[in-house]
Fold this sequence. Notes:
The complex is a heterodimer. Chain A has 2 domains: about 15-55, no CATH class; about 65-300, MetI-like fold. Chain A contains 14 helices and no strands. Chain A has helices at about 1-10, 15-40, 60-65, 70-100, 105-115, 115-120, 120-130, 140-145, 160-190, 190-200, 205-230, 235-240, 255-265, 265-300. In chain A, helix 2 (about 15-40) packs across helix 14, helix 7 (about 120-130) crosses helix 9 (about 160-190) and helix 9 (about 160-190) crosses helix 11 (about 205-230). Chain B has 19 helices and 9 strands. In chain B, the strands form 2 sheets. In chain B, strands 1, 2, 3, 6, 7, 8 and 9 form a 7-stranded mixed sheet that branches. In chain B, helix 10 crosses helix 11, helix 15 crosses helix 16 (about 355-365) and helix 18 runs antiparallel to helix 19 (about 420-435). Chain B is globular and about 75 Å long. The chains are: A mainly alpha, B alpha+beta. At the A-B interface, helix 13 of A face helix 4, helix 12 and helix 18 of B.
Amino acid sequence: MTALLRTHRTDPAPFLLLAPAVLVMLSVVALPLVFSLWTSLTPYRLTRPETIGAFIGLRNYIRLFSDGAFWAAFGRTLLFLVIALNVEFLLGLGIALLINRITWGQRTLRTVMMFPMMFSPILVGFQFKFLFNDHIGIVNNALQSLGLIDFAIPWLVDGRLAMFSIIFAEVWMSTSVFAILLLAGLFAMPRDPIEAAKVDGCNPWQVFRHITLPFLMPFVYIAMTIRSLDVARAYDIVKVMTDGGPAGRTELLWTLIARTGYENARMGQANAMAYVSTVLSVLFTWYFARKLIAARRTMGGAE
Amino acid sequence: MKRTLTALALGASVAALGSVAAAADYGSFPGYTLKVKLIGGAQYEPLYAEIGKWEEMTGAKVEILSRKNHFELDREIKQDIAAGTLDWCVGSNHTSFAPQYGNIYADLRELIPEETLAGFVPLVLEHSTVGGRLVQLPRHSDVSNLYYIRSLFENEDNKARFRAEYGYDLAPPETWAQVKDMAMFFADPPDFFGFQFVGKDEAVNGRFYEMLVAEGGQMFTDDWAPAFNSEAGVRALQFFVDLYQAKAVPAGVPNYLWDDTGLGFASGTVAMNLDWGGWSAFFNDPANSKVAGDIGLVRAPKGSSGRRTGWSGSHTFSITETCDNKAAAASFITFLTDYDRQMIEARKGLLPTRTQVWEDIKAEFAAAGDDFMVMVFETFQASMAEDAFTPPLIPEWIEVSNVLWPRLQAAIVGDMTAQEALDVAAKEALAIMEDAGYR
């Protein structure tokens, strides 16, 4: 400590050089966070700016802890995250492995694969809302025309089917994130261990299970971290397809938070919800970061 | 200022007589830039193509800061209120949204001459008034009436079977009880449905609210306690529950909004559809609709109280209190809602807010031999003049609306009984009203 102070006294250059970065970080990250944390301790309403000064302590948070609808949305978002991430991972891995195998047209396929990501989530929401419309939607009409069903499946009304439909739309749009990152991993993979394994008599499954997959795992966890942050904030697709309904069956954290903050103009309460919901993102990020470190260690042969 | 207002009044009177707008004087504001935030979307854009004419007449420029849908615009305006950045003059508004914004908008009775306002339908101006202040000038209105497939009602076999089953003649319904019978009669799921309704967001609240009024109920008591969980409320909600449980409406209705119901009726697989006037031209266009040429239209039916449903709202323009040139802003919104501009919008099927435009657009369609559009404007004119009513014009309406619609859905899909659903919603709505200091 003494050494540090002495350094500080004698050589302010490092601190001066760091100062711009620190100032930028403070103004674009820390200040908004502190501001929103403060509003979560007030009854702040967007349409009544004067309410920002009324400190009410933890009342918004206490109210949240007894709010069944919030916790139901919390649980639903968790479920949504787990299912969407795993399905996207499996599909993305499959696509990456397949694309890695082909030699002709690979670049074109890689580009085509990215098309869904180029659509706005709102557009994707509308697209799937009409595909899954029970009456005039193409899915039911196709199933009925093929004689597979003689009734209308209420895709966006039944609780489980509605969640399935939303997850389907989310997976359709974002699986390519996994595919691209895993494909990058496959490209970066050295050929020697695989060839050595083949010489040793390993079958394709053993090569995949013990060499390819461990090498890919750091890429998987990076993709998982990025997508978990995205999926935990899922809003546009859900807003368009069901708006959390019917009867709250597909309500996720951010449809609830956005309605509270903007439509009801209760920004203080919405920010309290947002702070609690970030716990989810922090937990997922922490979990995947730990897994990433472990996977890298394994890959480096440390364990 | 006085000269401008006189000129405005003169301009409006001339327009009201049906003369061309070129004769109107909208004042002179050379070099001034008027900042505006407008609602965007295909059906609203033709009006904005006219803005250049106002700029040419007045020497002012219009800077459009935003052109978004109403929900995004609402969000942006709330952010402006919060950030204190109301540095613009004119904003698109809506009768359902206006009460939320407090006193950010000016009282137009102080800015626009009485002679100009006299050209508007009085009931629509009344709906545009919040807390005794005219905070918005109506651009066009919306109310719903009942479209039906005419041939179904004229079919002799249908008539005979309906009479045998229900004991009265099959004819375009006059009451909602008849709609229910007829919807069940026509339904043949999953291929054909008797009726449909929008089932989520503020849309389903509007449908419930108008049925509540038609059943003789009210949303709030005189001292602002929620009163929609009354017997009339249960009857109103039960109407939707019964139709849903009987599969007389598509299974997806709890997730339907206007595009779903509009496209559903145009697909020719729904017998009756309560919908806005703006869909009329679409429904009768063979390129878009399988029921073109086979559409009947009657005024929205009556509930058990004898009153017709008539949930209504208007798209409007407002002027901010912080505007630095209210005279220019008043001139601009007067121009956007004048006779000629409303005729342009009415030709697209939007319902005008000026009395004279209602008459003249009908005459224009009649002269062109478009009997269908004449019938549309006659029906909608009657309901705008006699049946229309707005949701409660209080800032808390949207918030109350957001606790109500999920409960309405819960009753419709069978998670709760109508009474349970309304009781829970009433309890939550009461907390909102108490928080807001009404009680």
